[in-house]
TrEMBL record:
<protein>
    <submittedName>
        <fullName>Short-chain dehydrogenase/reductase SDR</fullName>
    </submittedName>
</protein>
<dbReference type="InterPro" id="IPR002347">
    <property type="entry name" value="SDR_fam"/>
</dbReference>
<dbReference type="GO" id="GO:0016616">
    <property type="term" value="F:oxidoreductase activity, acting on the CH-OH group of donors, NAD or NADP as acceptor"/>
</dbReference>
<dbReference type="InterPro" id="IPR036291">
    <property type="entry name" value="NAD(P)-bd_dom_sf"/>
</dbReference>
<comment type="similarity">
    <text>Belongs to the short-chain dehydrogenases/reductases (SDR) family.</text>
</comment>
<dbReference type="Pfam" id="PF13561">
    <property type="entry name" value="adh_short_C2"/>
</dbReference>
<dbReference type="InterPro" id="IPR020904">
    <property type="entry name" value="Sc_DH/Rdtase_CS"/>
</dbReference>
């Protein structure tokens, strides 16, 4: 196998992506499909799933299958794995992608339920999916892979976004611990830390932060870009390409790492 050939994941990988019917998750799902994988996603939005299925009406092979599920609901997680077994017959890759932005505000202003909800979706759900996926990943022919979506906020402090940052730091801790624990079972575990990624989600985040600081959206966006060495946002495709690399033979020696795909965000 040449170095160039090593950069492409093996065809036929069985992949589960949480929060995979829209945003970065959908771009990753489509990228895995293009690489010859079989992909199942779960998502909390029936509207997003319906849109995904409508977009695939003309696709005959390698359709992305989906389950409606709140990732923080353990019963829903069980239903996802029933569907994974039925659709894929096993699992080679888990991408723990689902997450929420959480509230914006000072620590003395935060609502306890919003804090708990952020922890449930961004952290507890990753545990629920990992614990159910590991027995399947142990049976993967070429070894299993877990990719956890953290954030650049998982390596930097983030004022007024404490719940989000706290959970994304915790994801890195879980990643490094699971890499040590599961390495002997030939399961690699890594985290991707996206930065400021183009799309509707970051637009909502910038708007909320602008309101908090009483600035215009344009001024707030300018301040966000000034924090990035490359002075531009990351694209969802760049994040997806990193996920494919980690699942390729070229990434087979990488485990326990938190990889920033962010244009080098210097501070938040």
């Amino acid at each position: 196998m040449t170095v160039l050939q090593m950069l492409k994941p093996h065809a036929g990988l069985r992949v589960l992506i949480t929060g995979g019917a829209s945003g970065i998750g959908l771009v990753m799902a489509q990228a895995f499909i293009e690489a010859g994988a079989r992909v199942h996603v779960c998502d909390a939005s029936q509207q997003a799933i319906d849109a995904l299925q409508k977009a695939q009406e003309s696709v005959e092979l390698n359709r992305i299958t989906a389950t409606l599920a709140d990732v923080a609901d353990r019963a829903a997680v069980e239903r996802v794995f029933v569907d994974v077994q039925a659709e894929l017959g096993g699992l080679d890759v888990l991408v723990n992608n689902a997450g929420i932005a959480g509230p914006t505000g000072g620590v003395d202003e935060l609502d306890e339920q919003e804090w708990n909800n952020t922890v449930d979706v961004n952290l507890n759900a990753q545990f629920y999916f990992a614990r159910r996926a590991v027995p399947l990943l142990r049976q993967a022919r070429d070894g299993g892979t877990i990719i956890a979506l953290s954030s650049v906020a998982g390596r930097l402090g983030y004022a007024f976004r404490t719940p989000y940052a706290a959970t994304k730091w915790a994801v890195v801790g879980m990643t490094k611990s699971l890499a040590i624990e599961l390495g002997p079972s030939n399961i690699r575990v890594n985290a991707i830390q996206p930065g400021i990624v183009k799309g509707p989600r970051i637009e909502r985040v910038i708007a909320a932060r602008a309101k908090q600081l009483k600035l215009s959206y344009e001024e707030m966006e300018k301040q966000y870009l000034a924090k990035i060495s490359l002075r531009r946002m990351t694209t969802p495709e760049e994040v997806a390409a990193t996920a494919l690399f980690l699942c390729s033979p070229a990434g087979s020696g990488i485990s326990g790492q938190a990889i920033s795909v962010c244009g080098n965000v210097e501070f938040l």
